[in-house]
Amino acid sequence: MLKRQTKTYRTALAPWAVVHLVSPTERIVMNRFRSRSDADGHLTILQRLMPQADLRVIVDVEQDN
What we know:
3-stranded antiparallel beta sheet, flat, single chain, alpha+beta
């Protein structure tokens, strides 16, 4: 239970994430950011380092049902 609360708290603090889309069903979170501009800047650098990778900036917010 504590692990889920910690992840939700971290996601709330840094909802922007740069992800590597490995396949249609699998993604790898490269890093999380508090602002969209920080995520975009990191994405630009990663795209230069990994030109063949499918990288995206997303808002990663968990919904509690």
